[in-house]
Specification:
This protein has three helices and 13 strands. It starts with a strand and ends in a 24-residue tail after the last strand. The mean pLDDT is 93. Helix 2 crosses helix 3. The strands form four sheets. Strands 2-3-7-6-5-8 form a six-stranded antiparallel barrel. A three-stranded antiparallel β-sheet has the order 11-12-13. With 218 residues, it is α+β, with helices and mostly antiparallel strands.
Amino acid sequence: MQNTIRLFDLDSYMQAFDATVLDCTPDGDRFAVVLDKTAFFPEEGGQYSDRGYIESARVSDVREESGVIYHLADSPVTIGASVNCKIDFDERYEKMQCHTAEHILSGLINAQFGYLNVGFHVGKEFMEVDFSGPMTWEQAMELEAKANAAIWQNLPIRCWYPTQEELPNVPYRTKKALPWPVRIVEVPGFDRCACCGVHVAHTGEVGIIKILSVAKFH
């Protein structure tokens, strides 16, 4: 099956779109719907998937396998049909804010301590980020202040795919070596990271970062 066109890479603010249904198969008590293109972000990189509707079918989960994105819906849709799709954007936008906030904070921690982000999870009430080294509460508060300074500057976020020739000359934060193509997300002066997620267009949209706790697990 052909790879799904990732509309969320082109426009993370897209709330509705039209697509063609390529496949629809039973999946437990739901139906796995494949579209030719989608703005639904699949569960990936510590961020849970978007929810919404394909026509009247409620989409409760989205996953990607080998380049194909599957929308788990509560009712079937007709293969070959042109369908209108809508995302629950309030929920999506909050994830965009959280993911951008994580980039700012992770970039600062990497620059100051050299730690890597080794775990990331966006929850309903807060997000958790795991790093490869410890820090004190006082250090965390200093980083919180620096992160909020980045937000107040309302910096533009850049997301792009460098060409195969450009990529070796683009320094970026990553946990492991990645083959081309690699999507880069940049917060000017604070972070440049390989990332597949959705983000706001300017840091000011994050609002504020508040660190609630710091814990050492190892």
